[in-house]
Amino acid sequence: MTTDEAKFILCAFRPSGRDTGDSAFGEALRFAGEDPVLGAWFAQSRAHDGAVAGKLGLVSPPPGLREAILAGVRAGDSRTSVGLGWGWIAGLAAAAAVAIGVFSMRAPGRPDSGTSAYAGFAINDMVSEKHGGRGEPAGALVAELQAKGSKMPGADQIDFEKLRDTGCRTVNFAGHDVIEVCFVRDGALFHLYVTRRDGPVSDSVAGGPSFIAEAAGAAAVWSDRRFDYAVASTAGIEALRKLL
Amino acid sequence: MNNEAFAELVDAHYAPLYRFALSLSRNGSDAGDLVQQTFFIWATKGHGLRELSKAKSWLFTTLYREFLRGRRRDSRSSSLEDLPAGEREPVAEDVDRVSRMDAALVMAALQTVDETFRAPLTLFYLEDMSYQEIADALEVPIGTVMSRLSRGKSQLRIALERTESLGPKVLPFPTTKGTRAS
Cβ contacts of residue B101 below 8 Å, gap of 6+? Predict the structure, then answer.
């Protein structure tokens, strides 16, 4: 075995060292142990590999990807194809909503795909059990929401940027920030989601509210001049109706 | 597969699949689509017939196939960076350089490596896959994997050097904002 041949093989030696017992590396490893120059090269190469692997491992998926995967597959619609962007989830979620059962207060027809996708996102996030707004503004909002008999807040009561920037839980839907707070009303837990009307959801969500029920829970979706809202709960559609 | 089992499968693999997709597609949005499409295929094409122990390899293979299929369809992504394929031996400065760079820059450098080398490199670095596992996932011979790792590492060292000199302006993917409360 030449030095170049040994280098060629050792390039495939994993930085974790898990290949130590692999006979394919045996001769090259022995060679590196006996040849100081090759040994130094191998040490340098492994150090570099370890540094690169460590850095790349810090790259995280975007928030909301897991929920989008679960929502898309739950819909079970094979009409989509790759390359259509995150919006293809909307189409899948719409199909799911139609299959599972959709209720609208405004019109007897089914909600559009944006409404269904947003509702599906809210329900999926709710069941992930990673909830709770933080920060003083979020606390004030929760207090308002929990006040008996109060209605859901509107554009004038929501300071989106302030809530987001002061630590209110922020998730991602179709590439857009969504703030979320939890609140309790009449003994039932609800999750309110608010996103600005500047994304793909807002292209199709108009007015409302629309109510969507899935096996995991139900959601109401509506919008005003500034925001798209969704409130999700396992308490059922009637409990959601009472909030609005 | 029930919903709970599927959610467990997603939890176990979606992050590494996303990193793999991000290195291939060089675009966060496309990477997200690739990962979603991969799980969608799993859910709709008889996953029950496969052994769960082979799920990881199957998912990576499928994502790679989908990426290649998308590339063939999308002529916009046919142009690759023209990095030299010549040898570049590792030196001490290389390790220091990587330590100085943040993860996004290292990923940016990896994304400029020729696609042929990028896929095995990503599985090698990110998934700690053996040459045999990489060969299985990418459906290429073992010797080809070793060759691509060797040449790919050489390109990556050059790319890291170049990327660091350019600074963060070359960042090609969004950083994760993350969940701020639980």
Answer: A55, B109, B160, B163, B164
* E strand or H helix that includes residue B14: helix B3-25
pLDDT, one tens digit per residue, over A158-215 is: 888 888 888 788 888 777 788 888 877 877 778 899 988 876 555 545 566 888 887 7
Q: Which of residues 37-56 of A touch B (CB under 8 A)?
A: 41, 44-45, 47-49, 51-53, 55-56
* Closest alpha carbon to A195 in A94, A64, A69: A64
ipTM of the complex: 0.78
Tell me if B153 and A80 make a contact (CB, 8 A cut-off): no
Q: Which of residues 148-167 of A touch B (CB under 8 A)?
A: 167
B109 to A18, B101, B164: CA distances (angstroms):
26, 10, 8
Nearest to B98 among A51, A168, A171 (CB): A51
Chain B residues near residue A51 by CB distance under 8 angstroms: 95, 98-99
Say how many residues make up chain A.
244
Here the tokens at position A23 are: 């006979």
Residues in Cβ contact with B162 at an 8 Å cutoff, skipping those fewer than 6 apart: B109, B112
Distance CA B34, CA B39 (A): 9
Instruction: Please give the Cα distance from A104 to A208 (Å, whole number).
Output: 8
Distance CA A204, CA A202 (A): 5
| Cα angle: B34, vertex B37, B43; to 5 degrees | 145
Contact call for residues A206 and A215 (beta carbons, < 8 A) = no
- Looking at the complex, report in whole angstroms how far the Cα of residue A171 sits from the nearest Cα belonging to chain B: 6
